[in-house]
């Protein structure tokens, strides 16, 4: 079992420096994310600053089966700032643990080291992998093959090339595993725009220190490593792994896995359960299309469906009944987009609906109900002489039945011309006393302005006819519902307003637009009704500093207005976003820090530039016009690390959140 380097390295180094010649094989090599990592536990040495006769080192390697050693490379402790800086840049790419925000930089560490050219005062800084690698205290072999077990030898070299002290590592292989139990998903939570996930596992031996976190941004999207904050906590005999991710988008599906590894990213043994999470409205998961078609030859019903967000769907549950209202039972759970129901009886009408389970554990409301019927006879004859008239009780629908095998009838209604017909009655059974003439009175209130009716017949084989002729009646007194304003958009020569109205095409004759400027009163601004098929209006108005607000009404066929919609003003629905991709560079003469950024996806009046150093508050150092995409800071503090961020001031006066920060480290003089 692997042990923490933080625990074993000081002991090994102390033991070696006390009695170097007594050591033969030491636990100084470990498998990791980019290869095998080997500790150089000798004191620092270089030609400029030797350790006695020692001026450098050599790293050798052999497989456990071989008897001869292969030299990988020679090296020494960095003797100059530039050498250490160069080593550090290379080390960043090979280190498993590197956080630019918390990492020590070379400008901080070099002055401490060069006072005595030893590691006595760098115990904290050298726990960071890139820094240990920059000082050649931690070596890496990126050419190691995964299936091979190696040993490494670190040798002290004199100026004449002869050897002094040496030690050999214990065997190490990429197949050495960090033994842990598989983390099982135990919870997930969305707070605002932050995803919080939790895994749990039984503790087996040593508590893991490090996780390899991976994220996929979709179902068929490859997983990539995610450098994010996480915690590992022991509770009793269990390990709790908690991960937070703030860099997420709404209505996107994310998948996460964690793998406990050693401190170098090696020893991956088990991958956790995959946790899927997304911030999505469950209404998007209800099928947008759900159809049923019967095949009388094969005596089967084929169901088809589709979704607005198909990537979020896990399981589709199909329910069926022989009655419309109740009696539904689950007949199939599937991950597909269709199902053939072969367990049916010809002549029996079947009703279906769907219930969906999504990938994050939600269960949706049921879908609409549909029906299908496997037919073994021809359709029933259409009802004839269909008419509609008005009475005090309601609209009276009349029809004549000319068929001899009718079982009953259904009356359908639509709230618009050529609109979808929906049933408004249960079966009206054939009655011999009616002598083939039937009526039904629709007593429903608050109907649309123009209402259509049709009648469907069903024969004794439970086969329905097509719709009869659709007959229409005007309802002049229908009061329209109020529309809803949903957005406002300012343009150069005016303002666009947008609304939605669920009943516009069937009830409304048009719309009236009302405007208020400043603290004035609302006034209607359209001379003629805005057509009912429209959902936007452009107000040509000279923009100034005064606030402009709108509300609208819908108007029915009799010219009666609805109640007012909600109100929207020009200061609403205009988000202000911070600049993107903020970067920083030193000028060629090192006398200024150059900032560059990209404009946000919102209107910009100006930019505010902020700077701070550790331990002090941020200060606004510049205000730039809306066209600026760069800034030169010549007043930065050259003796400290300088951190920068920007804010956007929108055209509406709102100020954005701070942008992502950038920073420049102090330069060594």
Automatic annotation (TrEMBL):
Cleavable signal peptide: 1-22
Keywords: Signal
Database matches in SUPFAM superfamilies: Fibronectin type III
Top-level lineage group: Bacteria
Keyword Signal in annotation: yes
Keyword Signal: yes
Protein name as catalogued: Fibronectin type III domain-containing protein
Organism phylogeny: Bacteria, Pseudomonadati, Bacteroidota, Sphingobacteriia, Sphingobacteriales
């Amino acid at each position: 079992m692997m042990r923490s380097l933080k625990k074993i390295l000081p002991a090994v180094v102390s033991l070696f420096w006390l009695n170097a010649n007594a050591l033969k094989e030491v636990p100084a090599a470990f498998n990791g994310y980019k290869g095998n990592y080997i500790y150089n536990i000798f004191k620092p040495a270089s030609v400029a600053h030797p350790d006695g006769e020692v001026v450098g080192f050599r790293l050798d390697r052999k497989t456990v089966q071989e008897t001869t050693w292969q030299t990988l490379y020679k090296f020494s402790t960095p003797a100059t700032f530039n050498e250490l800086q160069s080593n550090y840049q290379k080390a960043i790419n090979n280190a498993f643990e590197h956080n630019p925000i918390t990492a020590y930089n070379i400008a901080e560490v070099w002055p401490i080291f060069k006072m005595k050219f030893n590691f006595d005062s760098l115990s904290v800084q050298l726990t960071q992998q890139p820094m240990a690698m920059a000082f050649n205290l931690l070596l890496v072999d990126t050419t190691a093959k995964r299936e091979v077990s190696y040993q490494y030898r670190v040798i002290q070299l004199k100026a004449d090339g002869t050897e002094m002290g040496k030690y050999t590592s214990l065997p190490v292989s990429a197949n050495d595993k960090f033994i842990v139990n598989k983390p099982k998903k135990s919870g997930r939570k969305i707070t605002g725009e932050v995803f919080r996930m939790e895994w749990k596992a039984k503790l087996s031996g040593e508590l893991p220190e490090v996780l390899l976190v991976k994220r996929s941004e979709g179902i068929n999207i490859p997983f990539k490593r995610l450098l994010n904050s996480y915690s590992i906590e022991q509770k009793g005999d269990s390990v709790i792994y908690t991960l937070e991710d703030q860099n997420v988008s709404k209505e996107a599906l994310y998948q996460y896995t964690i793998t406990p590894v050693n401190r170098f990213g090696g020893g991956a043994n088990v991958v956790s359960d995959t946790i899927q999470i997304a911030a999505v409205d469950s209404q998007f998961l209800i099928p947008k299309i759900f159809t049923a078609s019967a095949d009388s030859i094969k005596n089967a019903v084929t169901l088809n469906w589709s979704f607005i967000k198909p990537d979020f769907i896990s399981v589709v549950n199909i329910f069926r009944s022989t009655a419309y209202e109740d009696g539904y039972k689950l007949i199939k759970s599937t991950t597909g987009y269709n199902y053939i129901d072969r367990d049916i009886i010809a002549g029996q009408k079947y009703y279906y609906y769907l219930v969906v389970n999504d990938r994050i554990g939600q269960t949706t409301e049921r879908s609409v109900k549909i029906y299908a019927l496997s037919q073994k006879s021809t359709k029933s004859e259409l009802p004839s002489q269909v008419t509609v008239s008005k009475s005090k009780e309601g609209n009276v629908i009349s029809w004549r039945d000319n068929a001899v095998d009718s079982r009953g009838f259904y009356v359908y209604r639509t709230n618009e011309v050529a609109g979808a017909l929906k049933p408004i009655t249960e079966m009206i059974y054939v009655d011999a006393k009616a002598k083939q003439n039937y009526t039904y009175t629709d007593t429903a209130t608050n109907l649309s302005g123009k209402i259509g009716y049709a009648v469907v017949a069903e024969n004794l084989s439970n086969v329905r006819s097509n719709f009869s002729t659709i007959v229409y009646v005007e309802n002049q007194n229908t009061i329209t519902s109020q529309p809803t304003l949903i957005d406002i958009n300012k343009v150069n020569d005016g303002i666009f307003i947008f609304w939605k109205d669920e009943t516009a095409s069937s009830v409304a004759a048009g719309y009236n637009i009302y405007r208020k400027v400043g603290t004035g009163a609302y006034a209607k601004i359209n001379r003629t009704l805005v057509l009912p098929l429209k959902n936007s209006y452009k107000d040509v108005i000279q923009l100034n500093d005064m606030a402009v607000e709108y509300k609208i009404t819908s108007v029915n066929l009799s010219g009666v207005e609805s109640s007012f919609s909600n109100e929207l003003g020009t200061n609403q629905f205009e988000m202000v976003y911070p600049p993107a991709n903020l970067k920083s560079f030193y000028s060629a003469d090192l006398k200024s820090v150059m900032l560059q950024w990209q404009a946000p996806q919102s209107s910009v009046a100006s930019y505010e530039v902020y700077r701070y150093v550790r331990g002090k508050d941020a200060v606004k150092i510049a205000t730039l016009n809306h066209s600026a995409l760069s800034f030169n800071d010549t007043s930065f503090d050259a003796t400290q690390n300088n951190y920068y961020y920007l804010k956007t001031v929108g055209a509406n006066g709102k100020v954005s959140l701070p942008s992502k920060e950038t920073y420049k480290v102090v330069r060594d003089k």
